[in-house]
Amino acid sequence: MGTSNTSDRPTAQTVNNFNSTSALFGKTVTTIAAGANHSLALCTDGTLASWGDNISGQIGDNTSTDRLIPVAVNYAAGISALSGKTVTSISAGDRHSVATCSDGSAAAWGNNAVGQLGDNTQTNRSVPVAVDTTNLGPSERFIRIASGVSAGHTLAIVAGPRLTPLESWRQAWFNSTANGGSAADMFDFDKDGLVNLIEHAFGLDPTRGSSAQLPQGQRVGDDFVIGFTRPEGASSVTYGAEWSTTLSGNPADWTAITDSDPALNGFTFSAPASGAT
After folding, report:
1. Contact 213, 204 (CB under 8 A)
2. For 31, what's the count of Cα atoms within 13 Å in the CB-facing half-sphere?
3. Distance, CA of 119 to CA of 115 (rounded, Å)
4. Which helix (H) or strand (E) holds 174?
5. What is the reported pTM?
6. pLDDT of 89-114, one tens digit each?
7. Which run of H or E residues covers position 220?
8. Which of 15, 106, 175, 229 could crosslink 2 through cysteines, CB 3.0-4.6 Å?
């Protein structure tokens, strides 16, 4: 209970934060976590305090001594995985403790008989050690971690970088977010004359010939007009059009066309019908 003694209390008591020997002295607590017989407190400055049973090192102060008042969890450089870190979330298990940090890393300490610390060992730890990230993907990070009062295991929520609409499209069709191989933007997977990026821009199926589904131009008065609506999922695409009377490979022979459709996701491009378009 952190009240400086081992007396059971039938009513709520104040955890010792008024004595200068308490690690909570002068601190403001934001989060509390309770294990089987120990407790953790996260403070606004990102530091941790703990108290109670310490038989497996779950207090994290580099000892196995039970603590009757809050003591600081070890942050020492070269010793603790929390050195230089700011803790953002905490949890407590049966006889172990876990935390996530603002840089996306996670640390754990205490009993490790069944690997609950996640450091690829079964060695108890009396100071925080880094949770192994070998099985995380590139740029993935821990954002939440949890255990339970009787738990000998730990769970974590992992987040990766947010995918762009184009990356999401590649993942959906080719099971890859990378601009390479079958998913490459300039690769024509279905051999229909349209590279993947064009298929994405017009909401087409890149795995089967779909060139006939492209927007078709038509004669409107003296102009040749092509109109279409941006498909769902193509929000990152920038559309443009040019026309030429020669269809040459010289960029100077081409003239940009201004989109004349006022709709947010609508596009209309017009060129003189008398020229080659």
Report:
1. yes
2. 15
3. 7
4. helix 165-174
5. 0.62
6. 999 999 999 999 999 999 999 999 99
7. strand 218-220
8. 15
